[in-house]
Design a protein that fits this description.
- The protein is an alpha+beta fold.
- Helix content is 34%, strand content 35%.
- A seven-stranded antiparallel β-sheet has the order 3-4-5-6-7-8-9, sandwiched between helices.
- A hairpin with a 2-residue loop joins strand 8 and strand 9.
- Helix 3 packs across helix 5.
Amino acid sequence: MKKIILLLAFLVSFSSFSQDDLDVDGIKIKKSIKVRDSGGKTKLVLNGYGIRDKMWINLYVQALYLTEKTDDPKKILDSDETIATRLYVTSSLVTREKLIKAIEEGIEKSYQSEIEPLRDRMHKFMSFFENVTEKGYLEFVYSKEDVKTYVFINDKLTGEIEGLDFRKALFGIWLEERCVDRTLKKRLLGK
């Protein structure tokens, strides 16, 4: 009987490691995704994931996808490679207004270059969040082929922003030295 229980425990643990998804706070995180760009679809691998919380409340689960795993934030930010992040909103505290304010403040805090050339694109970017709801996710995809960042809400394309500088500013929110959450940064880097 003991052997049967041990065998069952092994099979259950083995099958959980072979699945395509991870479960984080009730959210299914894909180990790899394919993102749309002008060249067709680019396969990205999960670099890391974590929970953004504030005052013990989980606000969102975030996953970072790259063409190749790395724990070097400078390498990621200085690259022009295709990159994606998914933010799975898990709290009703994440409203459209708070999301816009957090992204704007995150870019201003973390971006190391002159922010004024980004200002108009930031305002355009914020206009894409009309349909943010508590259920579902946001996805930001920078395409190397197009040199554009695409915004998807629950798999629906809501807009695009041009520029490699915008890529660096946006992803810097989570990866720059002055990021919004150091623990989340470490987890996105797979540490």
